[in-house]
Design brief:
The structure is a single chain. The protein has two domains: about 50 residues, no CATH class; about 35 residues, no CATH class. The protein is about 35% helix and about 25% strand. It has three helices and three strands; from the N terminus they run H-H-H-E-E-E. It has a three-stranded antiparallel β-sheet with strand order 1-2-3, with no helix packed on it. Strand 2 and strand 3 form a beta hairpin. The chain starts with a helix and ends in a 5-residue tail after the last strand.
Length: about 110
């Protein structure tokens, strides 16, 4: 197993996942094994590459709106899940009107 090759491929997939949201979850899963990849992990990377080859033209296009503005929004859900009574916080960031980052996280403790 060539660890360097695995790391280069996954690094390129991470970069590509900014415009190909359909592979973001799969790439996040294979990126967890950067320090000790196995043959199964490399097979998963090749499967992602085969998917990309078979689905061209599905990337996001970022538009230039003529202004350099950064906007961020955040939200919290206090005890939104009645099963475990945990809160969820989330945020998203826009640059020039284009969504560039988002995250949603369930809190680790009950407040």
């Amino acid at each position: 197993m060539d660890k360097g090759r695995y790391q280069r491929l996954v690094g390129r997939l991470i970069y590509l996942s900014h415009t190909r949201l359909d592979i973001a979850f799969a790439v996040s899963m294979v990126s967890q094994f950067m320090h000790s990849p196995s043959r199964e992990h490399m097979d998963a990377v090749f499967r992602i590459l085969r998917y990309l080859k078979g689905s061209p033209g599905k990337e996001l296009l970022y538009k230039n709106y003529g202004h350099l503005q950064v906007e961020a929004y955040t939200d919290a859900d206090w005890v939104g899940n009645v099963m475990d009574r945990r809160s969820t916080s989330r945020y998203c960031t826009f640059v020039e009107g284009n969504l560039v980052r988002w995250r949603s996280k369930k809190q680790s403790v009950v407040a």
